[in-house]
Design brief:
Helix 6 packs antiparallel against helix 8, helix 8 runs antiparallel to helix 10 and helix 10 packs antiparallel against helix 11. Strands 6-7-8-3-9-10 form a six-stranded mixed beta sheet, with helices on both faces. Strands 2-1-4-5 form a four-stranded antiparallel beta sheet, with helices on one face. The protein is elongated and about 120 Å long. It is α/β, with parallel strands linked by helices. The protein has two domains: 299 residues, ABC transporter transmembrane region fold; 248 residues, Rossmann fold (3-Layer(aba) Sandwich). The chain contains 20 helices and ten strands. The longest helix has 53 residues.
């Protein structure tokens, strides 16, 4: 036993338990202090980011806060008037003097109400203005993001941040700020007047305030965490709803209505559960503060009564003291409510900041310049190799020249890189420097607005807005009067071979197409998108498989009309059907991201390569379809 008590030779003795325990406590305290410091810095930084928006409305905000102070001054006058009235009642007092006191209370209430009305008008109005500016900036920031951002983000989540989160931020900068100042002034002034009446009694009653502040700190942090969880789940519900509505036809076609309902039900159940946890927290918070105030009232009745009996406090002062103590009840309750609003608003503002802090990966360079006008539309691609992120190359060493006014067709198997190539021309994705040029200028050095204005792009996935057919066609046309706009729409619709369909629509060009063009067929939507591109008058036209939903006869009509009106326009056609590309000045065949063949239809059709295989395959399909 004696040997066991001693450290064995050659081994380091273990430190005593109390030393280990003290080191653990010290390290744990340091870690918590570091986390608190980091959290406080994030909070201050978040509020600092909001100040520029608040500063725009500093005049109404300052005036509103001054009205809050003034309304509280008049609120505090009432108990003081009652003090004199009650003291006078204990002695002889005339009826006229009592009428004077009553009139004074009435006048004080009326003037205080007017100041309170102005306070709400100014402060809530300013918060609506801040909400307006934030919504505009949030939407404008989203518009700057490239396609890749939306490929990785859920639309419902972004919508939740732009609506629910923005509303919580407005409540923070409006009602929360208004009542924080108003109740803060009221509490400080009420306690000051209570001290002037009886210092000893006031100190005894406010001794519990440190406990209240600790309670608010604990509950405030917990509410912040709960509300962040609620907002995250609300974003999940919004995303599920948006996807289900956008894909309603697919859901019904595969009979997955019950699956979607169960998915929504599970998300909604979790949302309700998180709200209940917040409600439970709030249910403990507010009653705890009310209970604390109730204890102060009981203490006042006992201690204040003794002061009156012993003659250290007049009955009028007792009534005034009671009035000020009652006025402290609202600040205590409002303090909890304001804390809740601040934590909710802060959590929502931090969620919005994650979007604001995301810089667009595709944007104008500081030295971006305009293209010399007129824009000819000469396109050149030099040794272009491109990959999405860290993935394998989608395009490899692509070298291509599209002379101004010519028509180039791009064909190839699915996944060969056709769409990626034309997306790089308009910087929907950013090409490597020095690889893609328009009129001899690197597209990365040209202002985005001018580059995309010079290229009319018809994407593979047609999107139409939920408005009239005319509005959709004229979407990209600016600066036209009503007559020129109508003439241009009619001409673009005729070229896209949409005029015959329009003649059968009940409202003609004023027919509403429904969300995403729901009331139109696939071919009609594609032709509307082509008409929209033609309406811009851009010197470069890119059709990314934009004729896949029309029959070959209509396709030939459209291409024939395009050739007639686009003799000087550079045209790139991405297609799978040989009929769509046979008249191109140059045909490029992509295979696994590389240019495998190039030439005219006649030369490639007999070359024995990929293009000739594609020609034979489609001829065979046509013969089988006829038989």
């Amino acid at each position: 036993m004696e040997n066991d008590a001693r450290a064995q030779p050659g081994k380091r003795a273990s430190p005593p338990y109390h030393t280990v325990r003290a080191d653990f406590v010290r390290l744990n305290w340091r870690a918590r202090s570091t986390r608190r410091g980091s959290y406080n810095r994030r909070v201050l930084s978040a509020f600092g980011r909001l100040l520029p928006y608040v500063a725009r409305y500093r005049r109404p905000i300052v005036l509103g806060l001054l009205c809050a102070v003034a309304s509280n001054v008049f609120t505090l006058l009432t108990p003081w008037v009652l003090k004199y009235a009650v003291d006078d009642l204990t002695s002889s007092v005339s009826r006229s003097r009592l009428a004077l006191y009553a009139g004074a209370v009435l006048a004080i209430s009326a003037v205080g109400g007017l100041f309170r009305y102005q306070m709400r008008l100014l402060m809530i109005g300013a918060s609506r203005g801040i909400e307006y500016d934030l919504r505009n900036d949030f939407f404008a920031h989203l518009q700057r993001f490239p396609r890749g951002y939306f490929d990785q983000s859920r639309t419902g989540d972004l919508m939740s941040r732009a609506s629910s989160d923005l509303g919580a931020v407005r409540m923070m900068v409006g009602p929360a700020a208004m009542y924080a100042v108003s109740t803060g002034v009221l509490a400080v002034a009420a306690v000051s007047l209570m001290l002037s009446l009886n210092v000893r009694l006031t100190l005894l009653l406010v001794a519990a305030l440190p406990a209240v502040s600790l309670m608010v700190k604990y509950f405030g942090a917990a509410i912040h965490v709960r509300f962040e969880q609620i907002q995250a789940q609300l974003s999940e519900i919004s995303a599920i709803t948006q996807e289900a509505l956008a894909g309603v036809r697919v859901v019904r076609a595969y009979g997955q209505e019950d699956t979607e309902r169960r998915k929504f039900l599970a998300a909604n159940d979790e949302y309700v559960a998180r709200n209940r946890r917040l409600i439970l927290l709030q249910a403990c918070f507010y009653p705890s503060m009310t209970f604390g105030f109730g204890l102060s009232t009981v203490g006042f009745l006992y201690l204040g009564g003794r002061e009156v009996v012993e003659g250290r406090l007049t009955l009028g002062e007792f009534v005034a003291f009671s009035g000020y103590l009652g006025q402290l009840a609202w600040p205590l309750v409002a303090f909890g409510w304001v804390t809740n609003l601040l934590q909710r608003g802060l959590a929502s503002w931090q969620r919005m900041l994650t979007v604001f802090d995301t810089e667009p990966s595709i944007a104008d360079r500081p030295d971006a310049r305009d293209l010399p006008t007129p824009i000819a539309g000469d396109l050149r691609i030099r040794h272009l190799t491109f990959a999405y992120g860290s993935g394998p190359p989608v395009l490899q060493d692509v070298d291509l020249h599209v002379p101004a006014g010519s028509t180039v067709a791009i064909v190839g198997a699915t996944g060969s890189g056709k769409s990626t190539l034309v997306h790089l021309l308009v910087r929907l994705y950013d090409p490597p420097p020095g690889t893609v040029f328009i009129d001899g200028h690197d597209v990365r050095e040209v202002r985005l607005a001018q580059l995309r204005g010079a290229v009319a792009f018809v994407p593979q996935e047609t999107f139409l807005f939920s408005t009239t057919l005319e509005e959709n066609i004229a979407f990209g046309a600016f600066g036209l009067d009503d007559h020129d706009r109508r003439v241009g729409v009619d001409a673009a619709a005729a070229t896209a071979r949409l005029d015959k369909d329009v003649a059968h629509f009940p409202g003609g060009l004023q027919t509403r197409v429904g969300e995403r063009g729901l009331t139109l067929s696939g071919g009609q939507k594609q032709r509307t998108a082509i008409a929209r591109a033609l309406m811009t008058g851009a010197p470069v036209l890119v059709l990314d498989d934009a004729l896949s939903a029309v029959d070959t006869y209509t396709e030939e009509e459209i291409l024939s009309r395009l050739r007639a009106v686009s003799a000087d326009r550079t045209t790139i056609i991405v297609a799978h059907r040989i009929s769509a590309v046979r008249h191109a000045d140059q045909i490029v065949v992509l295979d696994a991201g590389r240019i495998a063949e190039r030439g005219t239809h006649d030369s490639l059709a007999v070359a024995g390569g990929l293009y000739s295989d594609l020609v034979r395959q489609q001829q065979l399909e046509a013969e089988l379809a006829v038989s």
